[in-house]
Amino acid sequence: MKKDLLIITNYFPPEIGAASNRIYALAQGLSSLNNIVTVLTPLPNYPHGKIFKEYRGAFSKKESIEKLNVYRLWIYASNSKNKFTRFFSMISYSLSLIWYFARKPIPDKVIIQSPPLIVAFTCMIFLKKRNRKLILNVSDLWPIAGLELGAFKKNFTYRTLQRIECFNYRHADLILGQSNEIIEYITNIVPNTPIFLYRNLPQNLPILKENKRDDSHKIKLVYAGLLGVAQGILKLIKNLEYSNIELHIYGSGTEQEEIFKYLNKNPQLSVSFYGSIPRHELMKKMEEYDIAIVPLLTRIYGSVPSKIFELAHLGIPILYFGGGEGADLVDRYELGWSVDPGDYDSLNKTIMRLNSDKLNDVSRVKLREIALKEFNFVNQLNLLNRIM
Questions:
Q1: Which of 22, 31, 77, 329 has its CA at 20 to 30 Å from residue 201's CA atom?
Q2: So what's the pLDDT on residue 213?
């Protein structure tokens, strides 16, 4: 049966990154099942913290993107490390949402992305009163993830965010969790609320050629993604042993300038930094590389980087450097190799043990077959559509 759906998110194309791609795929997928899908999102500003040039000067903007109705709302854009500035940025978007809720009809079913907690909290307060079915899409566990990353201390602010987190869970009619750890955590808080495992799975990725190689060249290791605090790419660059590898980096984020500066001071390193390129170009570029690294600076409870599923569908073997459920998936389905986060000695030893035979034994066709069976976007989407 056709549904009228509203998706509320902080990230959406033309913004880049896993969060934007994930919500876009969800919106497109639900639309393809003959649903009417509207997306509420800020004016594009991520990851640079500035409104994109073509959207500047607008308080709001309505667009139609492949049958999706997209409303872009005003936000005080910032990527500042200052907590108060970032908080004000979230509040500004919340105010825009309240303005929208007061003026526009709201569909019966609403999918709300969390984090950020404040935005989800705003939606829960104003939409629950209007008797809408609220579906909370939880991609990370905040504030716990912030505590593990060192962004929070166990003080009044942290305890307040915990109360907001629990409030959001208790007022949701259905919760989507992107990992089994998230589902287990939330179930302990709201045992009677329906919860559905909705992983951040890709679709429609290109089929890459097999990449047979020999030992006459260094192993081509690639990282493609956000250059943020959680990923720790600068620290990775400083701690890698480059005797048998060359590192290729694509992406942007808060560490970008520091990475530029460090590489300029250390040109002897076998590191190439390309910045951000369009997604379709990046997917094709991946054909050139032997193995991809997916790092997290520390093990973050509940976090399973969507890069795992994307790389598996591309047929690229994974060097997972983040621990937790992500490492379990890589090991269980033989998607590559896993190393505990922060253990750079073991990481370098693992890389040193890699050779042409080991890499050539990992078939891209086999990886794609595993991904299609175990991480199938269409199957997952159809299940979600039935229970909403």
A1: 77
A2: 61
